[in-house]
């Protein structure tokens, strides 16, 4: 699937442009040169963040350089959410999240992109999932962090109204991004993001984006049933769901996993991690992303150095467990692996040991299984 995999497509040149769409101009940052032979990584941020505050830690990490050396990256920001944005005019009607998903075809056309691997967080994850449902031919894969597929119920709506009356906008955003325990204990991280929200974001524009996200409809997906001919509405592409175990949206992410195709979806629940796993544990998220990309047939020569993996029944939730890594040091050093059988060309059915020299070809297995990962 790769043409000359060793040849990098990454370039230092960065294109920063405002792309005109039916629902207003969106700020985009394009890095690298698109090629017909491979997709482009496309990101969409969460409420209260922009592409820098949401993804800079992930994409500047040294482990990510091998990936972006082969894949161009296009960061998309919702209208008025970029750094230094002016207040949107009063005559402008802020788009719904469904409409925001419809700005993406214009972005792809503007930059000449044929297909994408989407990385979305929170609201951005919902928007990319919606985009993939409407335009499955344009999406090769999705990494969705903190996706909430549900609409706000009546009780949630009332709680949101009360929060708007009693809390400042930065407080509301912090509660959206982080769980209660993390807010109370991880003071440095919370202070950093409160500063980002207060100083780099236009508060009026953020408020409109937040209102749009809170007014979302439920993501219309249904898990297909094996052996039936019913063509249910679901994500067609390989999908990796990630959530921290201290995130405020653990239950919605697990619920989303239950509604997607188990043969194409993997859920990773990261222990010792809160609302932004790609910020708090970027190396682990990147390693999982490498497995995911390899499962799609790309970067097969990339070696895995951090994770040990074994498949379990679908009733278990995948997890990164930092404490377990220390207890399994001897297992990692032994590097015990089981070879891949001919019946499953997409990846080994059971692996227990070091991945230092064993490329894994698929994180999303072709049977109804989850992947338990410890590092």
UniProtKB/TrEMBL annotation:
Family the entry assigns: Belongs to the NDRG family.
Residue ranges, annotated region (Disordered): 310-375
Protein's UniProt name: Uncharacterized protein
PANTHER family noted in UniProt: N-MYC DOWNSTREAM REGULATED
UniProt xrefs under InterPro entries: AB_hydrolase_fold, NDRG
Pfam family for this entry, one: Ndr
Positions with biased composition (Low complexity): 310-322
Biased composition (Polar residues): 351-375
Regions that span the bilayer: none
Record organism: Pleuronectes platessa (European plaice)
Coiled coil (UniProt feature): none
């Amino acid at each position: 699937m790769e043409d000359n995999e060793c040849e990098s497509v990454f370039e230092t040149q960065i294109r920063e442009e405002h792309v005109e769409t039916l629902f207003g101009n969106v700020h985009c940052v394009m890095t690298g040169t698109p090629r017909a032979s491979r997709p482009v990584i496309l990101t969409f941020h969460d409420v209260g963040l922009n592409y820098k505050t949401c993804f800079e830690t992930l994409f500047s990490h040294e482990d990510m350089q091998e990936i972006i050396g082969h894949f161009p990256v296009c960061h998309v920001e919702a209208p008025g959410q970029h750094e230094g944005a002016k207040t949107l005019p009063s005559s402008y009607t802020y788009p719904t999240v469904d409409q925001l998903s419809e700005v993406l075809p214009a972005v792809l056309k503007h930059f000449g992109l044929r297909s994408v691997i989407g990385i979305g967080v929170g609201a951005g994850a919902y928007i990319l999932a919606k985009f993939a449902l409407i335009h499955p031919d344009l999406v090769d894969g999705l990494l969705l962090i903190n996706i909430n597929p549900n609409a706000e119920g009546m009780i949630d709506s009332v709680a949101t109204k009360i929060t708007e009356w009693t809390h400042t906008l930065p407080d509301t955003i912090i509660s959206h991004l982080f769980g209660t325990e993390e807010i109370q204990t991880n003071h440095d991280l919370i202070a950093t993001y409160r500063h980002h929200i207060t100083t780099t974001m236009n508060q009026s524009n953020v408020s409109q984006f937040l209102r749009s996200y809170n007014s979302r409809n439920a993501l219309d997906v249904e898990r297909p049933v094996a052996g039936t001919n019913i063509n249910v509405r679901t994500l067609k592409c390989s999908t990796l769901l990630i959530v921290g175990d201290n995130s405020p949206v653990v239950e919605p992410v697990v619920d989303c996993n239950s509604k997607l195709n188990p043969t194409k979806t993997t859920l990773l629940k990261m222990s010792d991690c809160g609302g932004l796993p790609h910020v708090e544990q970027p190396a682990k998220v990147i390693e999982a992303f490498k497995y995911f990309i390899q499962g799609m047939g790309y970067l097969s020569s990339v070696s895995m150095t951090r994770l040990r993996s074994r498949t379990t029944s679908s009733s278990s939730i995948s997890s990164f467990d930092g404490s377990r890594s220390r207890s399994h040091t001897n297992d990692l050093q032994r590097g015990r692996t089981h070879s891949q059988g001919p019946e499953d060309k997409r990846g080994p059915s059971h692996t227990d040991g070091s991945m230092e020299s064993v490329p894994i070809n698929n994180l999303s297995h072709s049977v109804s299984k989850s992947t338990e990962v410890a590092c």
